[in-house]
Amino acid sequence: MLLNEIISLRGALHEIPERSGQEQQTIQTLLNFLNRCTTLELHPRDGWFYALHREPGAERTIAVRGDMDAIENSGGTLFHGCGHDGHSAILAGLGAALEGTICGKNVCLVFQPAEETGAGGARVCEALLRELRPNRILGYHNIPGAPVGTVLLRPGTFACASLGLAIEVEGQQSHAAYPEQGKNPAYLLSEMVLRLPELIAQISEGNRERLLMATVVQLKVGERNFGVSAGTGALALTLRGNRQEDLEALEHSIVALVQEGCASRGMCCRFQRQDVFPDTVNHKEVYAQVEKILRRTGAPTQVLPEPMRWSEDFGWYLHRIPGVYLGFGAGETCCGLHTDGYVFPDSVLEPAINTLKSLVKNL
After folding, report:
1. How far lies 324's CA from each of 148, 295, 318, 320, in Å?
2. How many Å separate Cα 326 from the centre of its chain?
3. Residues in a beta bridge with 51
4. How far apart, in whole angstroms, are the C-alpha atoms of residue 66 and residue 99?
5. 330 CA to centre of own chain
6. How remote is the C-alpha of 51 from its chain's centroid?
7. Do the Cβ atoms of 48 and 125 come closer than 8 Å?
8. DSSP letters of 205-229?
9. Rg value, the chain, Cα
10. What's the angle, vertex CA 210, arms to CA 207 and CA 215, rounded to 5?
11. Cβ–Cβ under 8 Å, residues 275 and 117
């Protein structure tokens, strides 16, 4: 394995963080590395690419997906605060590690954009199915808090489904001295926020293990004008759960209650879904195979006690292609994902590449 070159690649990617859907420099840097260090077939596409380890006569194809985009820190500066520079370097390193290897199958390395917004997975998955129709797929994420070299597994749901629900309510502005002459959305939206725990309890039947959540990310009514009773309001929620059906039931209940409240008060409402992520659910048969392979190779493993609360657009692939999503320990002292102090640890690269190589050879 070209470990020093892979570490240098990760460092180069770290210096060029790019927004979701705008990963041009990142793509070119990865293509340059793969051109220089591998004989893989390189297939550039619109805003993403895949690299193919093709074996003569192979009838099966396994895909491995890595993401490329960055996030903004608390000051609005782009940085690799989720470790996608490391994820891309692992995938490119896997390509280098496959040189001269006979896998008995084709191996497709998928370099995907726009994971952070949830927009990349669905688009790339559709294209991948059209072009290659892989039989299996693997995805991965670094996990701070777990020892380096540890592979984190979970049967069933690995990461929660989530979506952003934006609600706009239009009433009627009036003089603050005569609020009865207007229609102020503040009361409706406040009631909605207060009803959220009740709705969650009803849908989840009080089972906290279903991890159903509704987080208020914005509540805004009118402006700071003390002579006016507001006529417009907005409520933005992040809904999340480890079961897709629970999430959808919660969304439908919220929408119905807002619509009912608006109808009774003579107000109008609009809804917009954003950042939609499906549940990331591991395929039962493939999970059993992965577990068996890791046990045979002696890789240290840890089974997560509950799904990750964050979401992953790898769920789009797992809804269409049998596969598994797993984690690689990033170290007990590694800063948390999306925090200003986070930097992907290079010590994760080699064990992650070796694990993926074992899996693609044996699945």
Report:
1. 20, 16, 7, 12
2. 13
3. 42, 109
4. 19
5. 17
6. 22
7. no
8. TT-GGG--EEEEEEEEES-S-TTEE
9. 23
10. 105
11. yes
| CB distance 352 to 152 below 8 Å | no
Cβ neighbourhood burial of 168 (10 Å; 0-12, 13-18, 19+): middle
The CA distances from residue 207 to 196, 200, 203, 213, 241, in Å, are 15, 10, 9, 12, 12
Q: Which residues of the chain have pLDDT under 70?
A: 1
What's the length of the chain?
Answer: 363
Closest to 302 (Cα-Cα) out of 160, 146, 156? 146
Strands 48-53 and 106-112: antiparallel
Q: Which two tokens stand for residue 173?
A: 């502005």
CA-to-CA separations, 228 to 180, 223, 349, in angstroms, rounded? 12, 8, 58
Residues 6+ apart with CB under 8 A from 33: 5, 9, 92
For 20, half-sphere exposure in the C-beta direction (CA atoms, 13 angstrom radius) is 13
Residues 6 or more apart from 57 whose CB is under 8 A from it? none
Q: Give the count of alpha carbons within 13 A of 295, CB side only.
A: 8
Chain position carrying tokens 């996990």: 143
Phi, psi of 142 (to 5 degrees): -75, 145
> Is the CB of residue 33 less than 8 Å from the CB of residue 282?
no
Whether residue 311 contacts residue 240, with contact meaning beta carbons closer than 8 Å, is answered with: yes
188 to 9, 98, 261, 357: CA distances (angstroms): 53, 59, 7, 55
Question: Whole-angstrom distance between the N-terminal and C-terminal Cα of the chain?
Answer: 21
d(CA 326, CA 352): 10
Q: Is 159 helix (H, G, I), strand (E, B) or coil?
A: strand
| 8 Å CB contact between 50 and 127 | no
Q: Which structure tokens are listed for 49?
A: 């690419």
Task: Measure the CA–CA gap between 356 and 361, rounded to whole angstroms.
Answer: 9
d(CA 17, CA 300): 32
